[in-house]
Design brief:
It is built from four helices and two strands. By secondary structure, the chain is mostly helical.
């Protein structure tokens, strides 16, 4: 469930966003650690594929049980042939869910590590540091100038 991952992301101070434009789903995770983001994203995709594969297998097994019961009840060969075809499709659905790792979500572009520095912005901090330094030095200079001017008048 993507909402559970969003709750975890709030706790870990990371941001999870997704965009659905059929047939593609784009998932983006931003956090302080790009390695953590990649790990969470890979885990999310793997868990979704496992969950949906298991769900598909359970559905197919229920369908197989139903079809086997129906085959026992049917006397008509044509209907029996149709039911066997449906049974075959159900078995192929189970084998596909077992064999294919990326069952529902196929990764078109694997998660990449963004190593560019987003924050802290060094230019911003250098500018702020320079402005604060200028402010303190101006205040210090004016204070000394006022004190010296006062002491010379006395």
């Amino acid at each position: 469930n993507l909402n559970e991952y969003k709750e975890i992301s709030i706790f870990l101070k990371s941001k999870i966003s997704y965009e659905i434009s059929p047939p593609l789903i784009t998932i983006t995770i931003e956090s302080q650690s790009p390695f953590f983001s990649k790990l969470v994203l890979d885990s999310l995709i793997e868990n979704i594929n496992i969950f949906l594969g298991e769900k598909q297998k359970k559905t197919a097994l229920r369908r197989i049980d139903f079809l086997k019961n129906e085959i026992k009840k049917v006397d008509n060969k044509t209907t029996e042939t149709i039911l066997f075809d449906l049974l075959s499709d159900s078995y192929s659905s189970i084998s596909l869910a077992d064999v294919k790792e990326e069952y529902m979500f196929e990764t078109i572009e694997p998660a990449t590590l963004d190593t560019s520095l987003k924050f802290p912005n060094r230019n911003f901090f250098a500018l702020i540091g320079s402005l604060i330094g200028f402010l303190f030095s101006s205040v210090f200079f004016l204070f000394n100038f006022y004190m010296l001017d006062r002491s010379l008048k006395d």
